Amino acid sequence: MAGFRPVLAATVVALFWVCVLVGPCWAGDPFAYFDWDVSYLTVAPLGVKQQVIAINGEFPGPVMNVTTNWNLVVNVQNDLDEPLLITWDGIQHRKNSWQDGVLGTNCPIPSGWNWTYQFQVKDQIGSFFYFPSLNLQRAAGGYGGITVNNREVIAVPFGKPDGDITLFIGDWFNKNHTDLRKVLDNGKNLGMPDGVLINGKGPYRYNRTLVADGINYETVNVHPGKTYRIRVHNVGIFTSLNFRIQNHNLLLVETEGSYTVQQNYTNLDIHVGQSYSFLVMMDQNASTDYYIVASARFVNETRWKRVTGVAILHYSNSRGKASGPLPDPPNDFYDKTFSMNQARSITWNVSAGAARPNPQGSFKYGSINVTQVYVLKNKPPVIINGKQRTTLNGISYFPPQTPIRLADQYNLEGVYTLDFPTRPHQGPPKLGTSVINGTYRGFMEIIFQNNDTTVQTYHLDGYAFFVVGMDFGEWTENSRGTYNKWDGVARSTTQVFPGAWTAILVSLDNVGVWNLRTENLDTWYLGQEVYIKVVNPENTNKTELPLPDNALYCGRLKKYLREQTPHYKTKSSSSVISANDKLLGFMLLLPLSVIFL
Ligand SMILES: *[C@@H]1O[C@H](CO)[C@@H](O)[C@H](O)[C@H]1NC(C)=O
Ligand SMILES: *[C@@H]1O[C@H](CO)[C@@H](O)[C@H](O)[C@H]1NC(C)=O
Ligand SMILES: *[C@@H]1O[C@H](CO)[C@@H](O)[C@H](O)[C@H]1NC(C)=O
Ligand SMILES: *[C@@H]1O[C@H](CO)[C@@H](O)[C@H](O)[C@H]1NC(C)=O
Ligand SMILES: *[C@@H]1O[C@H](CO)[C@@H](O)[C@H](O)[C@H]1NC(C)=O
Ligand SMILES: *[C@@H]1O[C@H](CO)[C@@H](O)[C@H](O)[C@H]1NC(C)=O
Ligand SMILES: *[C@@H]1O[C@H](CO)[C@@H](O)[C@H](O)[C@H]1NC(C)=O
Ligand SMILES: *[C@@H]1O[C@H](CO)[C@@H](O)[C@H](O)[C@H]1NC(C)=O
Ligand SMILES: *[C@@H]1O[C@H](CO)[C@@H](O)[C@H](O)[C@H]1NC(C)=O
Ligand SMILES: *[C@@H]1O[C@H](CO)[C@@H](O)[C@H](O)[C@H]1NC(C)=O
Ligand SMILES: *[C@@H]1O[C@H](CO)[C@@H](O)[C@H](O)[C@H]1NC(C)=O
Ligand SMILES: *[C@@H]1O[C@H](CO)[C@@H](O)[C@H](O)[C@H]1NC(C)=O
């Protein structure tokens, strides 16, 4: 069960410091091996029993605590009753889209099979997370953290914290992922979530009307006077969340692999798919415990009160329980200007080193000439062929039976078209498997124009991009005058406010086929994604790793598939934790209290 992530992770992860001379091996870089069993677990985070997706029996899954340039080998056993792929959000998989774990590059792992991912966290540092990428499965869990530490030889731009804490926040439904799929398939929207989970647990009972008795909540144990690095990931379905810790400043230091200019926030909006690290000083007098809150943004807060995650920050010298009202959210209701200004205030520390000793800012993105421009516009869901779908530039992505990258490897024609429009498509929306033709070593400008009524966050696999601008209204060529060409932060997931645009710049130096998608699970499921294909025109095997030996095959290449006899490690879970099982809940909380002793 979800305990205190990093400590449990350490017991699950087996590390071996060897370099095996098979497959793509980077001499000298350590290997870390992970053995994962992905299966259902019956829990009741909000008091209603349901099957969630656990990894080695843990929900959320373990945090992978690794270091720049390590090679990760992750053997994934699919004990679900449906196909599975795990994707590694923000991990760049340099030269290696074969390991990206999305349908455009990988055939799914069939139920009862196992498959081993192998990739290097090359030239990266920072806080990321993994999750199951298919069919809304993330709405049932299956996520966990990826912490990539600096190598010893490279300075971190702040003192060593006294502890490292990972928090997963996200909206949650008591309906399971298969029922949620049906809602979308039937042309409805998902409606209001039933709550927000923090580390897989429901809210602390801060209000007896709003929170039922017996809900298991998360406790973070700390010592007075110490400073902790708290990594927060919004792993939810579609709700933007405001994160805050009562009476404590959040000193923002890192976002998705970039060290930021360090600034204090009393609260920060974290959109679906985004990751942030804060340094938090335990500088209060511990008259009581403190609330850790993640509450829904840009909604009618009277109606959405239930959609609030509440965990407890417990000082070892605390004199009592937290009580009274939660710390206030920003008081701006439907006005998104505050949130946009907050996002704009997050900048890159150009003088800090990161994965390499030279300053992050030595890549002067602002002086590179743009070679390709794409304006990608999404709209509210539309009906195509009688089905509810979402679009980008009028095209609703239709996944082919044969993954795009695999089709190229085998020179199959007709799997996709390389003709994604550079501007919003006029005319009726349509289904298509249309791919963006990225120029290798080109510098691409992408403008996301959100014509929907909710925040959409966009994520690009394989890359970090520079967020150079965002504003309300329609983007025009003149909008470029407002771009931040100096210290826009490099990250992999950016929010696009409704009725607004966000512009990013990306250097296409990573060969492969890369997914560009909304992280909002509902609109992603309905087709709001595309792929960018980046090919080195020179015929060399140096810029892309070979197809892995264990590749799975499907669609038109199914004949190459080496069959596995389905084998299940876990039967559909028997470990039931009911909301009212207080003794069990208490036992689960016990380990939390010993973490920092
Ligand atoms: C992660 O690993 C680093 C060393 O590689 C270690 O210093 C740190 O304590 C670990 N963090 C956690 C939370 O286990
Ligand atoms: C989801 O819940 C429905 C009942 O509402 C049930 O029939 C179905 O088996 C459940 N699916 C999973 C994966 O738990
Ligand atoms: C499945 O797991 C076994 C070990 O349990 C491993 O030897 C084998 O290579 C794995 N199969 C794949 C395709 O990764
Ligand atoms: C930026 O990084 C430098 C180099 O590590 C560090 O000394 C400085 O404090 C950082 N500045 C801010 C504002 O975060
Ligand atoms: C608990 O929440 C309800 C419903 O929002 C509200 O009416 C009530 O005042 C709250 N109780 C306390 C003690 O804050
Ligand atoms: C952030 O707030 C803490 C107090 O919580 C303070 O000690 C620190 O100086 C502040 N840092 C900055 C950069 O404002
Ligand atoms: C410290 O705790 C006392 C209650 O014991 C409270 O009255 C006081 O305001 C607190 N001080 C700070 C700085 O929080
Ligand atoms: C928010 O919801 C409440 C309760 O449904 C309603 O009374 C109120 O008018 C709504 N406020 C706005 C601004 O829509
Ligand atoms: C960018 O383009 C301008 C004008 O087309 C040209 O003068 C300049 O040399 C180019 N800069 C780079 C870095 O290629
Ligand atoms: C894709 O772009 C490359 C240049 O990067 C070009 O040579 C090729 O013709 C383009 N393909 C299509 C189908 O437009
Ligand atoms: C959507 O686009 C239409 C046409 O350009 C525009 O009138 C409308 O204001 C836009 N709505 C949003 C929320 O962006
Ligand atoms: C890469 O290509 C070179 C020459 O083109 C060849 O000698 C070498 O064996 C290839 N390496 C792999 C791993 O395919």
Produce the secondary structure layout:
Blueprint lengths: L4 H8 L1 E3 L14 E13 L6 E6 L8 E4 L3 E8 L7 E4 L24 E7 L5 E7 L11 E6 L13 E10 L4 H9 L9 E4 L20 E4 L4 E8 L6 E5 L4 E6 L2 E8 L2 E3 L4 E7 L8 E7 L11 E8 L21 H8 L27 E7 L3 E3 L2 E3 L5 E3 L6 H6 L20 E3 L3 E4 L3 E8 L5 E5 L4 E8 L17 E2 L1 E4 L3 E8 L4 E7 L2 H5 L3 E7 L46 H8 L8
Parallel strand pairs: 2-5, 4-9, 10-13, 12-20, 21-27, 24-25, 26-34
Antiparallel strand pairs: 1-2, 2-3, 5-7, 6-8, 8-9, 10-11, 13-18, 14-17, 14-19, 15-16, 15-18, 19-20, 22-23, 27-32, 28-31, 28-33, 29-30, 29-32, 33-34
The chain binds 2-acetamido-2-deoxy-beta-D-glucopyranose (12 copies).
Mind telling me the CATH class of the domain at 156-327? Mainly Beta
Straight-line distance between termini: 21 Å
Q: What structural category arises from helix and sheet content?
A: mainly beta
The largest β sheet comes out as:
6 strands, mixed
Signal peptide: 1-27
GO molecular function: copper ion binding; oxidoreductase activity
Domain Plastocyanin-like: 38-152, 164-318, 402-538
Cofactor: Cu cation
Briefly summarize what is shown:
The chain is mainly beta and 597 residues long. It has helices at 5-12, 177-185, 337-344, 404-409, 521-525, 582-589, and strands spanning 14-16, 31-43, 50-55, 64-67, 71-78, 86-89, 114-120, 126-132, 144-149, 163-172, 195-198, 219-222, 227-234, 241-245, 250-255, 258-265, 268-270, 275-281, 290-296, 308-315, 372-378, 382-384, 387-389, 395-397, 430-432, 436-439, 443-450, 456-460, 465-472, 490-491, 493-496, 500-507, 512-518, 529-535.
